[in-house]
Specification:
This protein is of the alpha/beta class and 451 residues long. It is built from 19 helices and 14 strands. α2 packs parallel to α3 (61-71), α13 packs across α15 and α17 packs across α18. The chain is elongated and about 100 Å long.
Protein backbone atom coordinates (compact mmCIF):
# COMPACT_ATOMS: atom_id res chain seq x y z
CA UNK A 1 0.00 0.00 0.00
CA UNK A 2 1.37 3.42 -0.99
CA UNK A 3 2.33 5.85 1.77
CA UNK A 4 0.78 9.32 1.78
CA UNK A 5 3.26 12.21 2.00
CA UNK A 6 2.03 15.75 2.64
CA UNK A 7 4.39 18.47 1.32
CA UNK A 8 4.02 21.95 2.82
CA UNK A 9 6.08 24.58 0.95
CA UNK A 10 5.09 27.92 -0.53
CA UNK A 11 7.34 27.33 -3.58
CA UNK A 12 5.52 25.24 -6.21
CA UNK A 13 8.74 24.20 -7.99
CA UNK A 14 10.09 22.81 -4.69
CA UNK A 15 7.01 20.66 -4.19
CA UNK A 16 7.30 19.39 -7.78
CA UNK A 17 11.00 18.53 -7.36
CA UNK A 18 10.23 16.47 -4.25
CA UNK A 19 7.42 14.58 -5.99
CA UNK A 20 9.67 13.87 -8.99
CA UNK A 21 12.49 12.67 -6.71
CA UNK A 22 10.31 10.32 -4.68
CA UNK A 23 8.28 9.03 -7.59
CA UNK A 24 4.58 8.38 -7.70
CA UNK A 25 5.08 4.61 -7.97
CA UNK A 26 5.84 4.35 -4.24
CA UNK A 27 3.96 7.29 -2.74
CA UNK A 28 0.87 9.44 -3.07
CA UNK A 29 1.08 13.15 -2.31
CA UNK A 30 -0.83 16.05 -0.84
CA UNK A 31 0.38 19.64 -1.32
CA UNK A 32 -0.13 22.81 0.71
CA UNK A 33 1.38 26.25 0.14
CA UNK A 34 0.72 27.67 3.63
CA UNK A 35 0.62 26.59 7.24
CA UNK A 36 -3.10 27.27 7.66
CA UNK A 37 -4.10 25.20 4.63
CA UNK A 38 -1.82 22.38 5.84
CA UNK A 39 -3.52 22.26 9.26
CA UNK A 40 -6.96 22.28 7.66
CA UNK A 41 -6.00 19.42 5.35
CA UNK A 42 -4.46 17.28 8.13
CA UNK A 43 -7.66 17.53 10.18
CA UNK A 44 -9.43 15.53 7.48
CA UNK A 45 -6.59 13.45 6.00
CA UNK A 46 -3.76 12.12 8.15
CA UNK A 47 -0.60 11.51 6.09
CA UNK A 48 2.12 8.95 6.84
CA UNK A 49 4.79 11.66 6.63
CA UNK A 50 4.81 15.47 6.68
CA UNK A 51 7.50 17.48 4.86
CA UNK A 52 7.29 20.98 6.31
CA UNK A 53 9.17 24.13 5.26
CA UNK A 54 10.06 26.31 8.23
CA UNK A 55 9.57 29.58 6.27
CA UNK A 56 5.91 29.86 5.34
CA UNK A 57 3.66 32.87 4.76
CA UNK A 58 1.37 33.59 7.71
CA UNK A 59 1.69 30.70 10.14
CA UNK A 60 5.34 29.59 10.06
CA UNK A 61 6.60 26.01 10.15
CA UNK A 62 7.40 25.95 13.87
CA UNK A 63 3.87 27.07 14.74
CA UNK A 64 2.39 24.46 12.40
CA UNK A 65 4.58 21.79 14.03
CA UNK A 66 3.38 22.72 17.52
CA UNK A 67 -0.27 22.56 16.47
CA UNK A 68 0.13 19.23 14.69
CA UNK A 69 1.89 17.60 17.65
CA UNK A 70 -1.10 18.43 19.86
CA UNK A 71 -3.39 16.18 17.84
CA UNK A 72 -0.95 13.88 15.98
CA UNK A 73 2.01 13.33 18.33
CA UNK A 74 3.25 10.27 16.45
CA UNK A 75 3.18 11.78 12.95
CA UNK A 76 6.79 11.95 11.66
CA UNK A 77 7.61 15.50 10.48
CA UNK A 78 10.73 16.47 8.52
CA UNK A 79 11.54 20.18 8.63
CA UNK A 80 13.16 22.09 5.73
CA UNK A 81 15.35 24.94 6.95
CA UNK A 82 17.28 27.65 5.14
CA UNK A 83 21.06 27.51 5.33
CA UNK A 84 22.38 29.03 8.56
CA UNK A 85 19.15 28.71 10.61
CA UNK A 86 20.48 26.00 12.96
CA UNK A 87 18.92 27.64 16.03
CA UNK A 88 15.45 27.26 14.55
CA UNK A 89 16.28 23.69 13.54
CA UNK A 90 17.14 22.89 17.16
CA UNK A 91 13.84 24.38 18.27
CA UNK A 92 12.06 22.27 15.68
CA UNK A 93 13.67 19.09 17.02
CA UNK A 94 12.73 20.04 20.58
CA UNK A 95 9.14 20.53 19.44
CA UNK A 96 8.95 16.98 18.08
CA UNK A 97 10.28 17.05 14.51
CA UNK A 98 11.64 13.69 13.37
CA UNK A 99 14.57 15.32 11.53
CA UNK A 100 15.51 18.39 9.53
CA UNK A 101 17.25 19.15 6.22
CA UNK A 102 19.01 22.33 5.20
CA UNK A 103 18.21 23.68 1.74
CA UNK A 104 19.61 22.91 -0.70
CA UNK A 105 20.02 19.26 0.33
CA UNK A 106 21.62 16.23 -1.28
CA UNK A 107 19.16 13.79 -2.89
CA UNK A 108 20.85 10.75 -1.35
CA UNK A 109 20.64 12.20 2.17
CA UNK A 110 17.03 13.20 1.52
CA UNK A 111 16.05 9.65 0.47
CA UNK A 112 17.74 8.11 3.53
CA UNK A 113 15.86 10.39 5.90
CA UNK A 114 12.57 9.76 4.11
CA UNK A 115 13.04 5.97 4.47
CA UNK A 116 13.91 6.32 8.16
CA UNK A 117 10.89 8.50 8.83
CA UNK A 118 8.51 6.10 7.06
CA UNK A 119 9.96 3.15 9.01
CA UNK A 120 9.64 5.11 12.26
CA UNK A 121 5.98 5.78 11.55
CA UNK A 122 5.36 2.08 10.88
CA UNK A 123 7.11 1.05 14.11
CA UNK A 124 5.16 3.55 16.20
CA UNK A 125 1.91 2.29 14.70
CA UNK A 126 2.94 -1.29 15.47
CA UNK A 127 3.77 -0.45 19.08
CA UNK A 128 0.47 1.35 19.56
CA UNK A 129 -1.46 -1.59 18.08
CA UNK A 130 0.34 -4.13 20.28
CA UNK A 131 -0.18 -2.02 23.41
CA UNK A 132 -3.84 -1.67 22.55
CA UNK A 133 -4.18 -5.44 22.12
CA UNK A 134 -2.42 -6.05 25.42
CA UNK A 135 -4.66 -3.53 27.20
CA UNK A 136 -7.78 -5.23 25.81
CA UNK A 137 -6.47 -8.60 26.89
CA UNK A 138 -5.80 -7.33 30.39
CA UNK A 139 -9.26 -5.82 30.56
CA UNK A 140 -10.80 -9.23 29.86
CA UNK A 141 -8.52 -11.42 31.99
CA UNK A 142 -7.80 -9.24 35.01
CA UNK A 143 -9.68 -10.57 38.02
CA UNK A 144 -9.79 -9.71 41.68
CA UNK A 145 -8.12 -11.92 44.27
CA UNK A 146 -10.66 -13.67 46.47
CA UNK A 147 -10.01 -15.04 49.95
CA UNK A 148 -10.36 -14.32 53.64
CA UNK A 149 -8.15 -17.10 54.99
CA UNK A 150 -5.08 -16.22 57.02
CA UNK A 151 -2.58 -17.12 54.23
CA UNK A 152 -4.42 -14.93 51.72
CA UNK A 153 -4.68 -11.99 54.13
CA UNK A 154 -0.89 -12.11 54.52
CA UNK A 155 -0.52 -12.09 50.71
CA UNK A 156 -2.89 -9.11 50.39
CA UNK A 157 -0.71 -7.15 52.82
CA UNK A 158 2.44 -8.09 50.92
CA UNK A 159 0.92 -7.01 47.58
CA UNK A 160 -0.05 -3.69 49.16
CA UNK A 161 3.53 -3.10 50.27
CA UNK A 162 5.32 -4.15 47.09
CA UNK A 163 2.93 -2.87 44.39
CA UNK A 164 3.81 0.87 44.63
CA UNK A 165 7.55 0.11 44.37
CA UNK A 166 9.63 -0.95 41.36
CA UNK A 167 10.98 -4.04 43.12
CA UNK A 168 11.19 -7.29 41.16
CA UNK A 169 8.67 -9.85 42.40
CA UNK A 170 8.92 -13.65 42.18
CA UNK A 171 5.54 -15.39 42.52
CA UNK A 172 5.70 -19.08 43.40
CA UNK A 173 2.84 -21.58 43.53
CA UNK A 174 1.33 -24.73 42.07
CA UNK A 175 -0.47 -24.56 38.73
CA UNK A 176 -3.87 -22.97 39.11
CA UNK A 177 -3.20 -21.14 42.38
CA UNK A 178 -3.62 -17.69 40.79
CA UNK A 179 -0.08 -16.46 40.12
CA UNK A 180 -1.19 -14.38 37.14
CA UNK A 181 -4.05 -12.88 39.14
CA UNK A 182 -1.55 -11.77 41.81
CA UNK A 183 0.75 -10.32 39.12
CA UNK A 184 -2.22 -8.42 37.68
CA UNK A 185 -3.01 -7.00 41.11
CA UNK A 186 0.58 -5.85 41.60
CA UNK A 187 0.55 -4.11 38.21
CA UNK A 188 -2.91 -2.64 38.77
CA UNK A 189 -1.84 -0.98 42.03
CA UNK A 190 1.61 0.09 40.81
CA UNK A 191 2.81 3.51 39.67
CA UNK A 192 3.02 2.04 36.15
CA UNK A 193 -0.62 0.97 35.98
CA UNK A 194 -1.31 3.23 32.98
CA UNK A 195 1.76 1.96 31.11
CA UNK A 196 2.17 -1.15 28.93
CA UNK A 197 1.72 -4.52 30.65
CA UNK A 198 3.12 -7.46 28.67
CA UNK A 199 2.89 -11.16 29.52
CA UNK A 200 5.21 -13.86 28.15
CA UNK A 201 4.92 -17.59 28.86
CA UNK A 202 8.50 -18.88 28.82
CA UNK A 203 7.35 -22.48 28.51
CA UNK A 204 5.21 -21.96 25.41
CA UNK A 205 7.94 -21.27 22.82
CA UNK A 206 11.21 -22.94 21.72
CA UNK A 207 14.45 -21.15 22.62
CA UNK A 208 15.07 -19.24 19.36
CA UNK A 209 11.48 -18.00 19.11
CA UNK A 210 11.39 -17.10 22.80
CA UNK A 211 14.48 -14.91 22.43
CA UNK A 212 12.92 -13.16 19.43
CA UNK A 213 9.65 -12.75 21.35
CA UNK A 214 11.39 -11.14 24.31
CA UNK A 215 14.12 -9.06 22.62
CA UNK A 216 12.89 -8.73 19.01
CA UNK A 217 14.83 -9.28 15.79
CA UNK A 218 16.08 -7.45 12.73
CA UNK A 219 15.15 -8.24 9.16
CA UNK A 220 17.18 -11.25 7.99
CA UNK A 221 18.24 -12.26 11.53
CA UNK A 222 17.16 -15.81 10.74
CA UNK A 223 15.24 -17.72 8.08
CA UNK A 224 11.73 -16.32 7.93
CA UNK A 225 12.62 -12.98 9.55
CA UNK A 226 11.20 -10.84 6.74
CA UNK A 227 11.03 -7.59 8.69
CA UNK A 228 12.08 -5.95 11.92
CA UNK A 229 9.99 -7.05 14.90
CA UNK A 230 10.03 -5.29 18.26
CA UNK A 231 10.56 -7.43 21.36
CA UNK A 232 8.39 -7.39 24.43
CA UNK A 233 10.99 -5.52 26.50
CA UNK A 234 11.02 -2.76 23.89
CA UNK A 235 7.24 -2.54 23.66
CA UNK A 236 6.88 -2.56 27.45
CA UNK A 237 9.30 0.35 27.97
CA UNK A 238 8.22 2.32 31.08
CA UNK A 239 5.74 -0.44 31.95
CA UNK A 240 5.69 -3.97 33.37
CA UNK A 241 6.56 -7.45 32.05
CA UNK A 242 5.34 -10.74 33.51
CA UNK A 243 7.58 -13.69 32.63
CA UNK A 244 5.55 -16.78 33.49
CA UNK A 245 7.17 -20.20 33.95
CA UNK A 246 10.57 -18.54 34.31
CA UNK A 247 11.98 -21.95 35.29
CA UNK A 248 11.47 -23.07 31.67
CA UNK A 249 13.64 -20.29 30.21
CA UNK A 250 16.78 -21.76 28.55
CA UNK A 251 20.03 -21.08 30.43
CA UNK A 252 21.56 -19.11 27.54
CA UNK A 253 18.57 -16.77 27.58
CA UNK A 254 18.74 -16.50 31.36
CA UNK A 255 22.21 -14.94 30.96
CA UNK A 256 20.78 -12.27 28.62
CA UNK A 257 17.92 -11.60 31.02
CA UNK A 258 20.42 -11.18 33.85
CA UNK A 259 22.20 -8.50 31.81
CA UNK A 260 18.91 -6.66 31.23
CA UNK A 261 18.30 -6.62 34.97
CA UNK A 262 21.81 -5.32 35.63
CA UNK A 263 22.09 -2.69 32.88
CA UNK A 264 18.60 -2.22 31.42
CA UNK A 265 20.00 -2.85 27.91
CA UNK A 266 19.67 -5.59 25.30
CA UNK A 267 20.09 -6.13 21.55
CA UNK A 268 17.58 -7.38 19.02
CA UNK A 269 18.55 -10.64 17.28
CA UNK A 270 20.75 -9.76 14.31
CA UNK A 271 21.72 -6.33 15.66
CA UNK A 272 24.63 -4.94 17.66
CA UNK A 273 22.76 -1.79 18.65
CA UNK A 274 22.04 -1.66 22.40
CA UNK A 275 18.53 -0.65 23.36
CA UNK A 276 17.61 0.68 26.80
CA UNK A 277 14.28 -0.22 28.34
CA UNK A 278 12.93 0.82 31.74
CA UNK A 279 10.78 -2.14 32.75
CA UNK A 280 9.46 -3.49 36.05
CA UNK A 281 9.82 -7.28 36.00
CA UNK A 282 7.47 -9.78 37.63
CA UNK A 283 8.26 -13.49 37.31
CA UNK A 284 6.25 -16.60 38.18
CA UNK A 285 7.10 -20.27 38.61
CA UNK A 286 5.16 -23.42 39.49
CA UNK A 287 8.34 -25.12 40.75
CA UNK A 288 10.48 -24.64 43.84
CA UNK A 289 13.30 -22.27 42.74
CA UNK A 290 15.90 -23.83 45.04
CA UNK A 291 15.20 -27.26 43.55
CA UNK A 292 15.43 -25.81 40.04
CA UNK A 293 18.83 -24.27 40.92
CA UNK A 294 20.05 -27.59 42.34
CA UNK A 295 18.90 -29.34 39.16
CA UNK A 296 20.78 -26.85 36.96
CA UNK A 297 17.63 -25.45 35.33
CA UNK A 298 17.75 -22.00 36.96
CA UNK A 299 20.83 -19.82 37.38
CA UNK A 300 21.47 -18.93 40.99
CA UNK A 301 22.66 -15.38 40.17
CA UNK A 302 19.48 -14.75 38.17
CA UNK A 303 17.34 -16.12 41.01
CA UNK A 304 18.82 -13.65 43.49
CA UNK A 305 18.22 -10.81 41.01
CA UNK A 306 14.59 -11.84 40.65
CA UNK A 307 14.11 -12.55 44.33
CA UNK A 308 13.72 -9.04 45.70
CA UNK A 309 10.26 -9.93 46.98
CA UNK A 310 8.98 -13.51 46.99
CA UNK A 311 5.28 -14.35 47.18
CA UNK A 312 4.33 -17.99 47.86
CA UNK A 313 0.74 -18.84 47.00
CA UNK A 314 -0.87 -21.66 49.02
CA UNK A 315 -2.68 -24.49 47.21
CA UNK A 316 -6.46 -24.45 47.54
CA UNK A 317 -6.38 -27.55 49.79
CA UNK A 318 -4.53 -25.41 52.38
CA UNK A 319 -7.21 -22.69 52.40
CA UNK A 320 -10.45 -24.62 52.11
CA UNK A 321 -12.25 -21.96 54.19
CA UNK A 322 -12.03 -19.72 51.10
CA UNK A 323 -14.12 -22.08 48.96
CA UNK A 324 -17.58 -20.60 49.79
CA UNK A 325 -16.27 -17.13 48.94
CA UNK A 326 -14.67 -18.37 45.71
CA UNK A 327 -17.81 -20.26 44.69
CA UNK A 328 -19.93 -17.14 45.20
CA UNK A 329 -17.42 -15.09 43.21
CA UNK A 330 -17.36 -17.47 40.23
CA UNK A 331 -21.13 -17.94 40.24
CA UNK A 332 -21.57 -14.16 39.95
CA UNK A 333 -18.86 -14.00 37.29
CA UNK A 334 -20.37 -16.66 35.01
CA UNK A 335 -24.05 -16.19 35.81
CA UNK A 336 -24.56 -12.49 36.55
CA UNK A 337 -28.18 -12.45 35.39
CA UNK A 338 -29.37 -15.72 36.93
CA UNK A 339 -29.72 -16.55 40.61
CA UNK A 340 -27.86 -19.79 41.27
CA UNK A 341 -28.53 -21.73 44.46
CA UNK A 342 -25.60 -23.48 46.13
CA UNK A 343 -26.77 -25.81 48.89
CA UNK A 344 -24.75 -26.21 52.12
CA UNK A 345 -24.28 -29.91 51.34
CA UNK A 346 -22.70 -28.96 48.01
CA UNK A 347 -20.27 -26.57 49.68
CA UNK A 348 -19.40 -29.23 52.24
CA UNK A 349 -18.67 -31.69 49.47
CA UNK A 350 -16.48 -29.12 47.72
CA UNK A 351 -14.54 -28.50 50.92
CA UNK A 352 -13.97 -32.25 51.32
CA UNK A 353 -12.40 -32.47 47.86
CA UNK A 354 -8.61 -32.10 47.43
CA UNK A 355 -8.69 -29.78 44.35
CA UNK A 356 -5.43 -30.89 42.67
CA UNK A 357 -5.99 -28.23 40.00
CA UNK A 358 -6.45 -25.54 42.67
CA UNK A 359 -8.51 -22.39 42.04
CA UNK A 360 -8.43 -22.88 38.27
CA UNK A 361 -10.08 -26.29 38.65
CA UNK A 362 -12.71 -24.83 40.97
CA UNK A 363 -13.45 -22.03 38.51
CA UNK A 364 -13.74 -24.42 35.56
CA UNK A 365 -16.00 -26.70 37.61
CA UNK A 366 -18.35 -23.85 38.51
CA UNK A 367 -18.41 -22.61 34.92
CA UNK A 368 -19.10 -26.11 33.59
CA UNK A 369 -21.90 -26.80 36.07
CA UNK A 370 -23.58 -23.48 35.27
CA UNK A 371 -23.48 -24.25 31.54
CA UNK A 372 -24.74 -27.83 31.91
CA UNK A 373 -27.34 -27.08 34.58
CA UNK A 374 -31.00 -27.18 33.52
CA UNK A 375 -32.24 -25.35 36.60
CA UNK A 376 -30.82 -22.87 39.05
CA UNK A 377 -29.25 -25.33 41.51
CA UNK A 378 -25.49 -25.84 41.38
CA UNK A 379 -24.37 -29.47 41.65
CA UNK A 380 -20.90 -30.85 42.26
CA UNK A 381 -19.52 -34.27 41.35
CA UNK A 382 -15.98 -34.93 42.57
CA UNK A 383 -13.47 -35.75 39.85
CA UNK A 384 -12.19 -39.32 39.85
CA UNK A 385 -9.48 -38.95 37.22
CA UNK A 386 -6.77 -37.34 39.38
CA UNK A 387 -3.43 -37.51 37.56
CA UNK A 388 -0.22 -38.09 39.56
CA UNK A 389 1.38 -34.84 38.38
CA UNK A 390 -1.55 -32.78 39.65
CA UNK A 391 -1.28 -33.75 43.29
CA UNK A 392 1.38 -35.17 45.55
CA UNK A 393 1.53 -38.91 46.15
CA UNK A 394 0.15 -38.89 49.71
CA UNK A 395 -2.83 -36.77 48.71
CA UNK A 396 -3.60 -39.02 45.74
CA UNK A 397 -3.35 -42.13 47.90
CA UNK A 398 -5.65 -40.67 50.55
CA UNK A 399 -8.19 -39.89 47.86
CA UNK A 400 -8.05 -43.32 46.21
CA UNK A 401 -8.55 -45.08 49.56
CA UNK A 402 -11.68 -43.10 50.48
CA UNK A 403 -14.02 -46.09 50.23
CA UNK A 404 -17.29 -44.28 50.98
CA UNK A 405 -16.58 -41.58 48.40
CA UNK A 406 -15.73 -44.11 45.72
CA UNK A 407 -18.96 -46.01 46.40
CA UNK A 408 -21.01 -42.80 46.39
CA UNK A 409 -19.48 -41.67 43.09
CA UNK A 410 -20.19 -45.05 41.50
CA UNK A 411 -23.81 -45.06 42.71
CA UNK A 412 -24.40 -41.52 41.46
CA UNK A 413 -22.89 -42.29 38.04
CA UNK A 414 -25.03 -45.45 37.64
CA UNK A 415 -28.22 -43.63 38.62
CA UNK A 416 -27.54 -40.81 36.11
CA UNK A 417 -26.89 -43.34 33.31
CA UNK A 418 -30.07 -45.25 34.14
CA UNK A 419 -32.16 -42.07 34.18
CA UNK A 420 -30.75 -41.02 30.82
CA UNK A 421 -31.49 -44.42 29.30
CA UNK A 422 -35.00 -44.29 30.77
CA UNK A 423 -35.46 -40.69 29.59
CA UNK A 424 -36.02 -39.61 33.23
CA UNK A 425 -38.73 -42.24 33.82
CA UNK A 426 -37.90 -43.15 37.43
CA UNK A 427 -39.87 -46.38 37.52
CA UNK A 428 -38.10 -47.63 34.39
CA UNK A 429 -34.73 -46.45 35.72
CA UNK A 430 -35.31 -48.40 38.96
CA UNK A 431 -36.00 -51.53 36.91
CA UNK A 432 -32.76 -51.00 34.96
CA UNK A 433 -30.88 -50.72 38.26
CA UNK A 434 -32.81 -53.64 39.81
CA UNK A 435 -33.72 -51.60 42.91
CA UNK A 436 -37.10 -50.45 44.24
CA UNK A 437 -38.37 -46.98 43.37
CA UNK A 438 -38.32 -45.75 47.01
CA UNK A 439 -34.56 -46.41 47.21
CA UNK A 440 -34.03 -44.69 43.86
CA UNK A 441 -35.95 -41.60 45.03
CA UNK A 442 -33.87 -41.53 48.20
CA UNK A 443 -30.59 -41.74 46.28
CA UNK A 444 -31.67 -39.03 43.81
CA UNK A 445 -32.30 -36.71 46.75
CA UNK A 446 -29.10 -37.73 48.55
CA UNK A 447 -26.86 -37.10 45.55
CA UNK A 448 -28.75 -33.96 44.43
CA UNK A 449 -29.37 -35.40 40.96
CA UNK A 450 -31.52 -33.10 38.88
CA UNK A 451 -34.19 -34.97 36.92
Amino acid sequence: MKKLIHIVDDEAFMRKNIIDALGENNFTFLESDSGNSALESIRSTRPDLLLLDINLPGLDGLSVLKEIKKTEPDLPVIIFTAHGTSERAIRAMKNGAFDYLEKPFELEEFMIIIDRAIEYGQLVAEVRQLRSEVSREIGVNTDEIVGHSEPMQAIFKLIGKVAPTDAQVLIEGESGTGKEVVANAIQRHSKRNNKPYIKVNCGALPENLLESEIFGHEKGAYTGAHSRVLGRFEIANSGTILLDEINNMPLALQIKLLRVLETGTFERLGSEESIYSDVRLITATNRNPEEEIAGGRLREDLFYRLYVVRIKLPPLRDRLEDIPLLVDHFVKKYSPDKEIIVRPETLNRMQDYKWPGNVRELENTIRSQIVLSHGNILFFNEKQDVSPNQVNQSTSADYDLDFKRQISDTERTLIIKALRRAQNNKALAARYLKINRRLLYSKISEYEIEV
